[in-house]
Design brief:
With about 240 residues, this protein is of the alpha+beta class. It contains six helices and nine strands. The protein has helices spanning about 1-20, 25-45, 55-85, 95-110, 125-130, 215-230; strands at about 115-120, 140, 150-155, 160-170, 170-180, 190-195, 195-205, 205-215, 235. A seven-stranded antiparallel β-sheet has the order 1-3-4-5-8-7-6, sandwiched between helices. The protein has a two-stranded antiparallel ribbon with strand order 2-9. A hairpin with a 2-residue loop joins β7 and β8. It is globular.
C-alpha cells in the first residue's frame, strides 16, 4: 500500500511539473522550499514529548511518515528547482507550432472569454503582461486602420510561454502570438493554411510573431505590415 501511494504521488507530481512554465525560480521561493525540507528532516528526529502516550500504531505511522514526508519534500524541491531554473525554451518545430496555434485560436474564438485582460485603453494591456511573461511584448492598437485590439492573454505554444494579442477586423478575430526569437527560429516569413485558417509567421526586431485567423491572407499580411511599421497606438513604453 505504501509503495502504491508513493507511486501515485510521484506520478501526480510529474504530471503537475510538466505543465509548469519554465522560468527562473525567485530566491525567496528557493529559501522557502529549502526551509520546508529542513523542517521536515528535523521533524523526523525531533525529541519533543507528546502530550499523551502514543499507541503502537501511532509510533509506527510516525516512524514511516516523517522520513517519507521529508523525502517527498526534498524530491519536490529538486524537481521544482530543476524545472523552473531551466532556460526558457523557444516554441518547437514549425509544424507543431502551427498546429497548436490553430488549436488555440479555435478554442479562443469559441470561448465567451477570449482574453484575460480587456483593452480599455492603451495603458491596460501592456502592464498586465509584466510578471506573467519573461519578456516585454510590443502591444499596439490599430483601430484607426481597421484592426482593433480587444485584449490579451498569456498562452503556451510548444511548451513555451507566449503573449497572445486578440484583434478584430470586421467580423473576424485574429490571434497574434509573440515571443522572443531564438537562433533556431527562421528569419524568412512563412504563410500556410491549416484546417481552413490562415497562419502567417515572421521574425521582427528580436521577436517571433504568429497570427491566425479565418480572415484572408491579405488581411494578415496587412496586420504584419502595421506591426512592423510601428503604426498605431503603442503601449511599448507604457508602465
Amino acid at each position: 500500500m505504501a509503495d502504491e501511494t508513493r507511486s501515485d504521488i510521484d506520478a501526480a507530481l510529474d504530471r503537475a511539473l510538466e505543465r509548469l512554465p519554465a522560468r527562473a525560480a525567485p530566491p525567496a521561493l528557493r529559501r522557502r522550499l529549502a526551509a520546508l525540507v529542513n523542517a521536515g528532516a528535523a521533524s523526523g528526529s525531533s525529541a519533543v514529548p507528546p502530550t499523551t502516550a502514543p499507541t503502537t500504531e501511532g509510533r509506527r505511522a510516525s516512524r514511516w511518515a516523517a522520513p517519507f514526508v521529508s523525502a517527498c519534500a526534498a524530491a519536490a524541491l529538486v524537481l521544482i528547482v530543476v524545472r523552473v531554473s531551466a532556460p526558457r525554451p523557444a516554441p518547437g518545430g514549425a509544424a507543431d507550432l502551427v498546429a497548436e496555434a490553430v488549436n488555440d485560436h479555435i478554442r479562443v474564438i469559441s470561448s465567451t472569454h477570449p482574453v484575460d485582460i480587456e483593452s480599455g485603453g492603451i495603458h491596460q494591456v501592456k502592464p498586465w503582461f509584466a510578471g506573467r511573461v519573461d519578456f516585454s511584448p510590443d502591444v499596439r492598437d490599430f483601430k484607426s486602420q481597421g484592426y482593433e485590439l480587444i485584449g490579451g492573454r498569456m498562452d503556451y505554444l510548444a511548451h513555451a510561454t507566449v503573449a497572445a494579442l486578440v484583434y478584430t477586423h470586421r467580423a473576424h478575430k485574429i490571434n497574434a502570438f509573440t515571443w522572443p526569437a531564438s537562433e533556431h527560429d527562421p528569419v524568412e516569413p512563412a504563410s500556410e493554411q491549416r484546417r481552413g485558417y490562415h497562419v502567417l509567421r515572421w521574425r521582427e526586431g528580436g521577436m517571433m510573431w504568429c497570427v491566425v485567423s479565418d480572415a484572408s491572407e491579405a488581411t494578415l499580411v496587412e496586420l504584419r505590415r502595421l506591426i512592423e511599421s510601428g503604426d498605431g497606438a503603442s503601449t511599448q513604453l507604457m508602465h
